[in-house]
Design a protein that fits this description.
The chain is mainly beta and 147 residues long. Helix content is 11%, strand content 45%. This is Ethanolamine utilization protein EutQ.
Length: 147
Amino acid sequence: MAELNREMIEILVRQIVTEKLNPAKHIDPSGIASVKLPLLEVSEEDRLDTGNPNDIVYTKDLFSLAESPRLGAGLMVMKDTTFDWKLDYDEIDYVISGQLDIHIDGRTVSAGPGELILIPKGSQIQFSVTGDARFIYVTYPADWQAQ
């Protein structure tokens, strides 16, 4: 049996604590991670401040910067909301349910379940959802909020 050193013990403890606090996410000691999206829910602490308190928008990052320093990924949930946004990062949105509309320069790009949208860095857009929508965002760089 391999001898346990301090680093291995820390990795194992971190993995066990992460799994107990968040059963939807598993991180292998190699750094490979899986997320059970159907188990993830958003809460008021995940609410995105769009500048309008009536907007119903939630974002929940799926990985910390320590876990994924280059690519960001998260769950976004919206309900009957349209809001302005400027992207200082690249983003891909994969729609799980509902329909996501991106308004830009008087045009609309839409995606439904199983479809995705690429939004290049520098885009000045409106995110828009009628009804409910749930989608995954992937960003580069990972620290999209600091851009």
